[in-house]
């Protein structure tokens, strides 16, 4: 079992943004998360997800995976977390979407990044990506967040 | 395998357009806090009711994916009713997928109102499309589900979710 570690890099380093602060192309910080088997177990329990592929290593091996798989919605939660932590508590997440492309297992270092792609008044669009330590994209996403003025 | 996918396609297609109403109930503060903690929201309006109140929320704020990540809101199924891999035999409620395994492909969420502890919530779930495809490891189904989460008392819309599942 590897120890879970996570850190925020540059997120809100200079305070939370307002719509006037933001420009297309701005990075929105970076979140690095290393989920463990404990993370997956607790996420499955909280979401009432009994699928063995998320907590039973020998079972996951029967399906050809090197470990239990990070849940789809946990990937999505990490992406959404980057956005709301960057935007700050007075912002509102309005839309969020993501896709699962590549599986992840406990011990994988998942790096979540984002970039501003559009600013329409107080609504800011961001493109998001979660990549693993091999540079493979596990989950791309997009978000629209309403920032304070 | 092909026959099973074909059977699931026929059965699931018969459920397209049927709306199921599922009672979620009153959102529990502790459940919201636990979910938020596991995904990394360790403080602020996701953990502290006073912080949420200071921001104008009527209760502790739920992490964005809380409602749409929970797979089941009722007590069951009993373990004896699960498939050997742990999956529910009825992952889409009344829509029959003939025992195929579902894997989440992603979601598209629209947040209409903040989701906070104390809200009484009802989910309306509808399978909107079933498509048969040939994947690298054989045939599969792509099942599109639309869920609307509304406040039980006045029906106001809180969250909409379009989710795609791969069924093998």
Automatic annotation (TrEMBL), chain A:
Family matches, as InterPro entries: HotDog_dom_sf, MaoC-like_dom, Mitochondrial_HTD2
GO molecular function: (3R)-hydroxyacyl-[acyl-carrier-protein] dehydratase activity
Protein's name according to its UniProt entry: MaoC domain protein dehydratase
Pfam families the record matches: MaoC_dehydratas
UniProt domain MaoC-like: residue ranges: 31-119
Assigned protein family: Belongs to the enoyl-CoA hydratase/isomerase family.
TrEMBL record, chain B:
Highest rank taxon of the organism: Bacteria
Gene3D superfamilies xref list: Hotdog Thioesterase
Database matches in SUPFAM superfamilies: Thioesterase/thiol ester dehydrase-isomerase
Xref: Pfam families: FAS1_DH_region
Residues of the FAS1-like dehydratase domain: 27-152
Protein name: FAS1-like dehydratase domain-containing protein
Organism encoding this protein: Pseudonocardia dioxanivorans (strain ATCC 55486 / DSM 44775 / JCM 13855 / CB1190)
């Amino acid at each position: 079992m590897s120890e879970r570690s996570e850190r925020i890099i540059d997120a809100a380093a200079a305070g939370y943004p307002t719509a006037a602060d933001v420009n297309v192309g701005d990075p929105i910080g970076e979140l690095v998360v290393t989920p463990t088997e404990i993370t997956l177990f607790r996420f499955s329990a909280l979401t009432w997800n009994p699928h063995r592929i998320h907590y039973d290593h020998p079972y996951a091996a029967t399906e050809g995976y090197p470990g239990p798989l990070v849940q789809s919605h946990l990937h999505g939660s990490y992406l959404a977390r980057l956005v709301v932590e960057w935007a700050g508590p007075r912002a509102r997440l309005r839309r969020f979407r993501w896709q699962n492309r590549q599986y992840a297992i406990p011990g994988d270092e998942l790096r979540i990044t984002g970039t501003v792609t559009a600013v329409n008044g107080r609504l800011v669009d961001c493109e998001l990506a979660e990549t693993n330590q091999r540079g493979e994209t596990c989950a791309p996403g997009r978000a629209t967040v309403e920032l304070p003025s | 395998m092909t026959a099973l996918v074909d059977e699931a396609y026929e059965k699931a297609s018969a459920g397209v357009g049927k709306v199921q109403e599922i009672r979620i109930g009153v959102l529990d503060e502790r459940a919201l806090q636990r979910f938020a903690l596991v995904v990394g929201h360790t403080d602020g309006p996701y953990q502290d009711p006073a912080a949420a109140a200071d921001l104008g929320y009527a209760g502790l704020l739920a992490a964005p994916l809380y409602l749409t990540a929970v797979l089941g809101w009722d007590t069951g199924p009993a373990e004896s009713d699960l498939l050997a891999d742990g999956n529910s035999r009825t992952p889409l409620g009344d829509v029959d997928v003939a025992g195929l395994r579902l894997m989440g492909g992603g979601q598209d969420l629209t947040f209409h109102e903040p989701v906070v502890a104390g809200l009484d919530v009802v989910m309306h779930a509808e399978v909107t499309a079933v498509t048969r495809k040939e994947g690298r490891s054989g045939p599969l189904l792509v099942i599109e589900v639309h869920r609307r989460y509304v406040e039980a008392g006045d029906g106001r819309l809180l969250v909409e979710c379009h989710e795609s599942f791969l069924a093998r």
